Amino acid sequence: MSIEKPIVYPEVNLPSFLTRGLDGRLVVDKDFLKEGSLGPFDRVIDFGSSLDSVRETVPPENRITANRRTDLTYLGFDIPIVASRMRDICRLANDPNRSFNNPADREEYRNHLKIVYQELARSVANRIDPQSALITPPKNGGIFVQEVYQEIGFPAENFLDYRMSRLLGKDGRLMVGVRLADKNPKISAYRNFVFADDCLASYISAWGTLEMIKEELQKESALSEARVIIAVSAATQRGLTSLLSIESRRHFGFGRMEAVAAVPVYRLSEDFYLLEDNGNFTVGDMGKWSLPPEAK
Fold it and tell me: Which fold has domain 62-162+179-289?
């Protein structure tokens, strides 16, 4: 499966559902949205309906069930505690008597997830020097990711501060809104990059992040020098293989791209949520489940 290039606003004329606020940033019409934030955003990336095929369930005969590729690794196949902790997360997310509104339940969820993130961070650290890489964990889900990576030894000053908001239109259009903090590391000063998110479903946050990296490195004619690692917990097979496809590699032009995830997911809901074969949520709303117990 290949990637179709999305539309990036404001690089082209704005559609009727986007306007500019007083600060020049983009705001989404509330009557257009089915789900997501109104903004403001620095940019909005519109995938339209191009990702509909990503929701198709992967047939059993086509599923990745062991690590045989050099550019794609699922830790859960070889590290039992990763697989078991992900099963615990799935159990919590689907228990009608448990809720992310309960601080004790969130703490249990986070304890399981922390083990998974630690293994992912160690795997990344074994591939690149933590001191030399720019880590890009989009908020909200990336807040807990960053906390764990810093504990493993990735310096706080090497994290990009930004927010990715999934936007689902009432017409089925899938978009992502991007908002960068005012103070951030200079992207073009790095050659190693880690997209470290909580999970990967439709891959829109990963695409949006890699597009930002590409734009900055192009200014330095340094695309071929870049090494990019995608590191997430639960990840759709279709999403990761699309990002690692020949077409995607040609589009971004990075010298090297690879991915490491905890467990594969073979199915998505109509609204692009990770699902088990039985219809249960794989991880639930990770941004809410991974909030600290003391969060209101």
Answer: Rossmann fold (3.40.50)
Whole-angstrom CA distances from 84 to 9, 73, 100, 220 are 41, 17, 20, 44
**Peptide bond preceding 10: is omega within 30 degrees of 0, i.e. cis?**
yes
Q: What is the residue extent of each domain of the chain?
A: 62-162+179-289
- CA angle (68 as vertex; 269, 149 as ends), nearest 5: 65
- Cβ-contact 35, 271 below 8 angstroms: yes
Q: Please work out, in degrees rounded to the nearest 5, the angle formed at the alpha carbon of residue 274 by the alpha carbons of 270 and 280.
A: 90
- pLDDT 10s per residue in the chain (296 long)? 445 678 999 888 999 999 998 899 999 999 999 999 999 999 999 998 777 788 899 999 999 999 999 999 999 999 999 999 999 999 999 999 999 999 999 999 999 999 999 999 999 999 999 999 999 999 988 999 999 999 999 999 999 999 999 999 999 889 999 999 999 999 999 999 999 999 999 889 999 999 999 999 999 999 999 999 999 999 999 999 999 999 999 999 999 999 999 999 999 998 889 999 999 999 999 989 999 998 87
